Here is the input.
Amino acid sequence: MTAIALVSSIIISTGSLAWAFAEAGLFVLARWALIFGVVWLFAQWRGWRWFSSFGLLVVVLVSAISIWLGFSAEWLFSGTVFALFAWDMTDFRQRMRDIAIDENLHAMERRRVARITFFSFIGLFFASMMLMLERGKFTLEWGALLVIVILFGFAQLVSWLKR
Here is the structure.
């Protein structure tokens, strides 16, 4: 469960950065953001725990500089929220490997993912409000991102209720 949340958060984070750069017409930077996402996924697969902290730092710095330069703040904010989600999931997965296995392991995992998902929804809500205040309407792309995130949340809820 945490693996799916981790991978999807890395994809959404770097995809959001790439979208912000593509909107600004900087397609080279958009490609580099996507390449960075692939490297981050590879690092997770190889078990390089340190890369998640590095990834969070890079995303936050790039987002802050890009907002300062006037890029689309909602996409950069979304990238930062999901980078934070990925960093937290990496740390949590490592701590779960270090503790003894018992029957409460899955309950702890469910509560953690639910809590982080809730805070991500709050972050996206605030980003949506920024978008509404800035432009007066949602873009189709932003609506698609919200639908994808909400569908992930509902799929998570359904899988928990099945157990």
In short: The mean pLDDT is 82. Residues 2-162 form one domain.
